[in-house]
Every structure is written in C-alpha cells, then in structure tokens.
Amino acid sequence: MADPPSTRAIYDEQADRWARSEKILLSDFTARPRVLEALGPLDGTHVLDLGCGEGYVSRLIASQGAASIFGIDLSEEMVRTAQSSIPQDTGCEMAFAAGDVSEPISLPRENFDRVVAVFLFNYLSRAQMIQVLGLARAHLAPGGRFVFTVPHPCFPYMRPATAPFMFDTDDHGYFDGADSTYEGRMWRRDGSDVSIRCVHKTVSDYFDALHTSGWRQLPRVAELHVTPEHLALDPDFFGPLEGAPLHMLFALEAEP
Ligand SMILES: C[S@@+](CC[C@H](N)C(=O)[O-])C[C@H]1O[C@@H](n2cnc3c(N)ncnc32)[C@H](O)[C@@H]1O
C-alpha cells in the first residue's frame, strides 16, 4: 500500500478548497467564532498564528483591530494563498511565512499579546505538541492569551465515520491509539469536503503536555458542539452531529 501523503502535501494540494472569505467549513461555524471570543479584546494587539493555513483566522483577527499578525504554516501553498489574501484596507500589519512550528523558527518579535493555534496540534505527535506549547509559552507577553482548538479526542469513538465530519480510527482504541494518525474528512456547506487528519491524543495527553511544557495555570476548556442556532440555520448539514462533542478549546493566560 502507498504511504499516506505528508501533511504538507495534503495542504499544498487543497489550498484552494480551504481559501474562503466567509464561513463555509463546518468548523467555521462550530469552532472559529469561539476562538475569537476566547481571544478577548484584540485592539492594538500583536498576534502569532501558529498553523495559520490560508489565513482565515488571521484575517478575522485583523478585522478586530489587531496591530500586527504573523502567521506561520508548513504548507507553502497555504502561505501563498494567505499572502495573496491580505486585505487592502487593513490597518493591521500582516505577514505570513512557511515553516514547521515544531522545529526552531524565527519570529519577527520576541513577545506576542495573543498566540493562537487553530487545529494545529492534531497534526503533531505528543512530543512535537510539547515543543510547540513551550514555544507559545516562551513568546506570550505578560498578561497575554493563548488559545488553541483540537478535534475532541472522544469524537471518533462516539459516532460512525460519516459526513459531515469524520476520522477513521483504523481500529485503534481510545488509549492504544495515542500518536496514531487517523485520516479524516470535514465537509463544507456547499457539499464538497476537505481531507484532514488527527494524530490522536487522549484528553489527559493535552493536560500532561501543558504541564510538561511549563504551563502551570488551569486552562479554561470548552467542549464545542452543534448549537440550536446551527440547527436553525441548516438542519440538514448540522443535524447529523447533534449531541456529539466536536472540538475542544483551551484558553490560557500568561501571568501579568
Ligand atoms: C486544519 S488546518 C487549519 C488552518 C488554520 N489554522 C485555520 O483555522 O483555518 C491545519 C494547518 O496546520 C498546518 N500545519 C500542520 N503541521 C504543521 C507544522 N508542523 N508546522 C506548521 N504548520 C503546520 C497545516 O499545513 C494546515 O494549514
């Protein structure tokens, strides 16, 4: 059997299906608005977007008054798309670079008021995630906020692997599957889909990794799911996921 494509190849190949200027993917409704809420006031902030993709979250942050945003992503095609989608009229200084955030990277400033990693850690092993959690901690300004989201670790075990959101556990169990790659797909509301993957971790793996990487305060955690508003908007699209835990959001604050 052929080796699965690398994460970089997956995203280089489908950058055009991620490119968007409005909510279209399932998680644009069920997760990203909650990330913006958890980031708090953004006016005048300097923001680091780890695993920025084609820049959708960066553009939302820029539209909320951030002073600067630096996004970094493994996929050169995603970064090219992000660069070409920088709004003309933004008052925010936006820059994007290609790079692997689990390796040493150079950043345009020492400290950021906000660090965000939206669905990045599901592409990293537990050891790589510890590196990146340490990087976020090292570069968060005093009093700053770090917000990240991941697929809910229980999700693949709680419903059949079907549209509009799925991961194939390849018969791994919840505990023995840690660090195994589950290939998945997520749908857009127009009926097309994108390939995603999840390097599986248990819930306690996230807390252990935060502790190992030096974070000491309790994160605020939210288990994100389909809401009555989603169901009212598009019952056919969101209905199959009703009641399932889709994503986890973690929010941490650096000490003042
Ligand atoms: C699910 S996409 C999310 C993109 C963006 N954060 C968003 O919310 O639209 C995950 C992104 O993580 C990037 N990624 C995966 N592993 C990475 C790594 N080691 N370093 C940097 N980016 C990575 C992928 O290239 C991809 O663009």
Question: Describe it for me?
Answer:
This protein has 256 residues and is of the alpha/beta class. The chain has a single domain (7-151, 203-253), classed as Rossmann fold (3-Layer(aba) Sandwich), CATH 3.40.50. It is built from 9 helices and 10 strands. The chain has helices at residues 7-18, 26-30, 32-39, 56-63, 76-84, 126-138, 203-212, 228-233, 235-238, and strands at 46-50, 68-73, 93-98, 112-118, 140-151, 165-167, 181-187, 193-199, 220-224, 247-253. The strands form 2 sheets. It has a 7-stranded mixed β-sheet. The chain has a 3-stranded antiparallel β-sheet with strand order 6-7-8. Helix 5 (76-84) links the parallel strand 2 (68-73) and strand 3 (93-98). Helix 1 (7-18) runs parallel beside helix 5 and helix 6 (126-138) packs across helix 7 (203-212). The longest helix has 13 residues, at 126-138. It is globular. The structure holds S-adenosylmethionine. S-adenosylmethionine (SAM) binds at residues 7, 11, 51-53, 56-57, 73-75, 78, 100-102, 118-120, 123-124, 196. S-adenosylmethionine (SAM) is lined by residues 7, 11, 51-53, 56-57, 73-75, 78, 100-102, 118-120, 123-124, 196.
